[in-house]
Design brief:
This protein is mainly α. It folds into 2 domains: about 45-110; about 110-180, no CATH class. Helix content is about 80%, strand content about 5%. It contains 7 helices and 2 strands; from the N terminus they run H-H-H-H-H-E-E-H-H. The chain has a two-stranded antiparallel sheet with strand order 1-2. Helix 2 (about 25-55) packs across helix 4. The mean pLDDT is about 85.
Length: about 180
């Protein structure tokens, strides 16, 4: 039921960029880039919001990590090997929490991708992209998944490079990192 209610709206909105260029190949590539850009922007906004709303917790974990690291360095300087091992173990535990939290925030940044891939599967599963040349491991056609993945990565790299040049964007990210750090 939900599929039949929302699919027509999103389908017409998502397919539009694929039809903007006269060449089917160029239209497909452009459409996938636009779809990737939708995913990147939505994911970036989501990760920023999750980071913002979890600032206290992130700050707490980073504080624990710094505290235990400093204690382990003091114990090492004093030559207390047992204390160093005990405190360093706690520092590593806090680092593990920090690393896991970073991985979770990264996952938040890519949550739109499965939905984009599901839509691409509905639209392009039976229509691989014909390539003008034969590529190693791919041949002369490429399915929707690898084409999306390659274009997503390229688009994300370009997006990051461009967005860093905007002061409002880099300032917002820096302020958020300042609140967390």
């Amino acid at each position: 039921m939900v599929h039949s209610l929302f699919f027509p709206f999103f389908d017409s909105w998502l397919i539009a960029p694929f039809r903007w260029l006269p060449s089917p190949t160029a239209g497909y590539i452009f459409g996938v880039v636009v779809l990737a850009l939708y995913c990147i922007i939505l994911g970036d906004l989501s990760a920023t919001l999750v980071t913002y709303f979890n600032t206290k917790y992130i700050k707490k974990i980073q504080g624990e990590m710094d505290h235990h690291h400093n204690l382990s360095e003091k114990a090492l300087m004093m030559g207390d090997k047992e204390s160093y091992k005990a405190v360093n173990s706690q520092a590593l535990d806090a680092f593990g929490h920090s690393f896991s939290l970073g991985a979770a925030i990264f996952c938040v940044s890519i949550w739109p991708m499965p939905f984009a891939l599901a839509w691409l599967n509905l639209r392009f599963a039976d229509a691989p992209l014909e390539l003008p040349v034969s590529l190693p491991f791919l041949g002369n056609t490429i399915e929707y998944f690898p084409s999306f993945l390659l274009l997503y990565i390229a688009t994300r790299m370009i997006y990051s490079t461009i967005m860093r040049k905007f002061t409002w964007y880099s300032g917002t990210k820096a302020r958020l990192a300042g609140q967390v750090a």
